[in-house]
Amino acid sequence: MSRLEALKTLPRDALLLWRRSLTVRVLLTGVALSVVVASSVSMVAITQVRDGLISERQKSSISQATVGLVSAIRIVNSLPAAATTADRTAMVEAVVAAVAAPAGTSGEFEVLLLATTGQVSLGAPERGTNQISDQSVTSVLRQAVISQEAQAMQIGTLQFLDGHSEPGIIVGSPLRLPGIGQYELYQLFPLADEVATLSLMSSASAVAGVLMVLALIGTSLLLTRQVVRPIQRAAQSAERLRNGRLTERLAVRGEDDLAKLATSFNSMAVSLQDQIRRLESLSRVQQRFVSDVSHELRTPLTTIRMASELLYASSESFDPASARAVELLQQQSERFENLLNDLLEISRLDAGAVKLEIDDVDVKAMVSRVTESLESIASAQNVKVESVFCDSAGSVPCDVRRVERIVRNLISNAIEHAQGQPVKVAVAGDENSVAIVVRDYGSGLQPGEAALVFNRFWRADPSRQRTIGGTGLGLSISLEDARIHGGWLEADGEPGKGANFRLVLPRRENVEIVSAPLPLALDEIDTWLEENA
Q1: What gap in Å lies between CA 488 and CA 194, rounded to an integer?
Q2: What are the beta bridge partners of residue 159?
Q3: pLDDT (tens digit, 9 = 90+) per residue, 290-323?
Q4: Which residues contact 235 (CB under 8 A, 6 or more apart)?
Q5: What is the pLDDT of residues 88-144, one digit of tens each?
Q6: Helix 474-484 with 400-417: angle, nearest 10 deg
Q7: Cα(202)–Cα(44) distance, rounded to whole angstroms?
Q8: Is 449 exposed, middle or buried (0-12, 13-18, 19+ CB in 10 A)?
Q9: Whole-angstrom Cα Rg for the chain
C-alpha cells in the first residue's frame, strides 16, 4: 500500500479502532478531558492574574500620573510667562524634568509633552524622555485628552526612537503653559515586569498542565487495567462460549462488582450448558424419531404405491366413482412419498450430515432447465414464466441437485400464487456472487410474513387449497440448502403487489457475501426488470 493510500484509509482505520477498542476510548477520553481541564485551569488562572496585575498597574499609573501632573502645574506656576523662544524651551524642559524626576533614568516611566495643534504659539517645542517616540500616543487618546480637557488613559504600545517597543499604559492630561499655549502631558508606564510575571506564570502553568495530563493518562491506564481488562476477558470468554466451548468460565477475584460480574457470568454459562445439553439431547431424540419413522413408513408406503400404481393402470375399466378413488389414492400416496423424502432431508440437514457434491455449474443453463421442466404446470395454471439473463451470470461452484431444487421450489411456488399473472425469473452476477430472483405479481405477503415463509409447514392462508400439492417443507429446505452453500435466500412482498424471492450464491467457496447483484425490494426489482427486459 502506498503512502497516499495509507493516508486515505487513516481516518477510517482510526474510527474503526475507536469503535472497537474500549481501552482506546478510555485513554483518549482521559487525555482529552485532562487537556481540557488543564487548559481551562491555566487560562482562568492566567486571565485572573493578568487582570489583577493590569488593574493594579492602572491604579498605580493613574496615581503616579496625578502626582506628575501636580508637579508640572507647580513648576508652571512658579515660572514667569515665556516671552522668547529660549524662555519657551526652558519652560518645556523644566516641566518634563519635574515630571520625570521621580523616575530618573531608571525607566520606571517615560514622559512626553506634546503641543496641541492650533493652540500653541509659533516656535513652541515638544519634549520627551529616554528617546520615547510621540508615535506611542494614538490619535484616539490625544483626541480624548483634548476634547474632554481631563485625564485619559489607554493601554497601548510604547515606541522608542531606536526601533524597539514594549506594552505599556499611557496616561494623558491637558496642561497650559503661560505664554506658550495648550499642551498635552503624557506619562507612559512600561508593563515589562507584568509581562515577565505572566510569561513565568504561563510557563509554570504549561508545566503543571503537562504533569496533570500525564497524571490523568496514568490514572486512565490504571483504570483500564483494573476495569477494562476484566471486561475484555469477559467478552473473550463470552465469544468462546458462543463458539461452543461450554466449559468456559471466568476467574472470580475479590468481592467487588467485577467479581459479581464473573460470578453471574459463570452461573449463566452453567445454565446455558445445561439447557444446550438438554436441547441437544431432545433434538437428537426428535431427529432420530423423524428419521426412524420415515424409514419405517417407507416399507408400507412402497407397498401402497405399488398397489395404487397397479390399480391406476387398470382404472379405465372401473366405474367412475372407483376410478376417482384410485386417482385420489395415486395422488395422495405420491404426496405422502414426497413428504417422507422431505422429512428425511430435514433430518439430515438438522443433523449436519449433508455432504455437498460441488461442481462448476452454469447458472443460466440450470435455470433454463428448471423453467422448461415446469412449463406444463405453468400452462395448467395459465401462467407465463419469463426469464431475463445477464451476461454477467456465469457459473458458481455448487451442488447442482440442491440448487436446482431451490430454484424449482421458488418458481413452482410463484406459479401457484401468481393468480394468472406472469412470473419473472432474473439472473445476474458480479465478481463476488450470482443472484437468482423469482418475481410474481399475485396475492403477495402480509407485513412480517417475509420471514415466516421459510418456517416449516407455514402457510399464509390455511384455508387456501394447494393446487400443486407441496409438502410445506420446500422453502425451509431451500433456506438450509442456501445456507450450507454460504448463500442467502430472502423474500419480500406486499399484499396485492406480489412477492419477490432472491437467492444469492458466492462465486468462490468459503467466501462471505457482502452484497447482491440484484435488488430484493419490489419497486427496485421491477425497475431493474423494466430496464433489462
Answers
A1: 75
A2: 165
A3: 666 666 666 776 777 777 777 777 777 778 887 7
A4: none
A5: 888 888 888 888 876 444 457 888 888 887 666 555 677 888 788 888 888 888 888
A6: 140
A7: 11
A8: middle
A9: 48
